[in-house]
Amino acid sequence: MSLDKIEILYRNFGVLADAKDKISEHVEEYSEIIGAVKGSVNDKKLASQFITRFFKHFPTLMDQAIEALFDLCEDEDVSVRKQAIKDLPSLCKENNEYTSKVTDILGQLLQTIDTTELSVVQSSIMTLCKNDIKGALKGMFNLIEISNSPVREKCLKFLVPKIKMLGRDIMTKEMEEYAIDQCKKILRNVTGDEFMQIMDLLAWSRLSQSLAGQKELVEIIKHHAELSKSFDPTNPEDVDRSIFCSLHCVPYLCSAIPSTPFVSFLCEQVLPKLDQIPETPKEESGGLDNQLEALKLLAELSPFYVIHDDTPQHITNIVDCLFALLPTPPTSVEGVEETEPEFKYSRIEALLYTLHHIVKHDVELICKDVDRLKELKKRLQYMARWSMAYVKRLREVLKAGENDADKAAENKVKLVALKTMANINTMVKEFFHNPPAFKATITLSFKPLSEKKSALEESAANGGGVGTKRRAPISFGDRGDRDGVSAAKNRPGVDSKNRIYTPPSGKFSTNLSYQQSREGGGRRPSGGGRGGGGGFRGGFRGGRKWRY
């Protein structure tokens, strides 16, 4: 019976292929081809190819033909699904009005767990993008806007890097502006991971290439960072949002786009509660020490801070944090050997750098309280004494292992530590001018390396310093990890641990129901409505919610 259907399919194909200008008269033959999608596996695969081959010639059967192919995309047999998915873009070559609808369906199929099928889905979406970028983007963004979390997440993770891969010849100015507008709509209701993905796309777009666009991006970040809210240090969502959301504004800061709102929030809300933030790196935070990360962020923001009425209180809070890290010099007792304190040098570097940039334009801000300045200098001097011995140990360890290939990674970390110590030493000296003078140019040890990496590393080994990747941990010689984190992990892009919906290996329809899309006919899984309205939803790095 199946063989007869194959013969009928080939017979109908021959009739249509030979009909030439009169092909539209053979509606019955094309209808029989469409009907073959209910046959055997081979019937279905052949029907898929023939449907797309003659699709454009039968406008009255187009909707029926598309629905037949959509049915094949849900078939129990993966080879049938792959054939239909591969053929779908052919429908839109000369019928662009269907691009959005087809992209919508393909976007839902990004959930498949079969890697070979996923590859075909991705390839088909890219084909649609190259043939009709406007229709493809419309379909994808519409799906992202109204879908439930698993579909939305898969679509964003696919779309953001692929848009950048398409290049400016396909992503014209008009298409970029459309994508930017759609991203702004999506930002009204996003998870933390989605926020990062969309900001990554906006950073690539033309929006980031003008001052007005950069200001707009910083305003978006400011809004999502919720700087007007009270900070709860025990709430992981508050900590994540405050640190990792605000970090996105750093590339856009300049004299015309100050960091003052962000620095003010950190000084007023975070620093007084810093010790209440869980210090031990948690698995769900990617192993990051959030106390240290908050101070690093503050340091990066500080060069673009503008002094205002609340600045004296900000300085007070910064100095208080330094006092918490710098012990008071003990009274020496004859015959009793002094024990080296545990200094958290990375935190000290970040706080000194912040203080350096805030007071450099008005030294009186730090000099007004003579007693506090005197106490700070005394503690800095005490730390500097111990740091000299520590730097000596670091150099000895580096020299001993300079030819040991197994210690190459460890030595790079120690070079970072040397750079940290060099920065601290330079900034401490600034306090001992009369009056204090904050004129030194400092590059934070956790900032990315410059092009002069090799020369700087050599300098560090001989007593200078070297920069390093921002997120690398710092391990301090034989005294263990003095600050840094337990694993070298970049931020803010930490993998989400949200559980992803797994489509069935058989028919999608056994687990999913479909409803009409707003575009008029696109199918989508039930539960796809966004619901709720504004606010961060879903989870940021492991299921956490941020809302606004």
Automatic annotation (TrEMBL):
Query: Known Pfam families for this protein?
Result: API5
For this protein, the record's InterPro entries field holds: API5, ARM-like, ARM-type_fold
Biased composition (Polar residues) is annotated at 507-518
Cellular component (GO) terms are: nucleus
Keyword check for Oxidoreductase, yes or no. no
The record's annotation in SUPFAM superfamilies points to: ARM repeat (SSF48371)
What superkingdom heads the lineage? Eukaryota
**Which portions of the sequence form the region Disordered?**
457-548
Q: For bias kind Gly residues, which ranges apply?
A: 523-541
Can you supply a Gene Ontology BP term from the record?
negative regulation of apoptotic process
User: Has the keyword Transmembrane helix been applied to this entry?
Assistant: no
Q: Name one GO molecular function term.
A: RNA binding
User: Which UniProt keywords are given for this protein, alphabetically ordered?
Assistant: Apoptosis
Q: Which family does it belong to?
A: Belongs to the API5 family.
Protein name listed in UniProt: Apoptosis inhibitor 5
Q: What organism is recorded for this protein?
A: Cacopsylla melanoneura
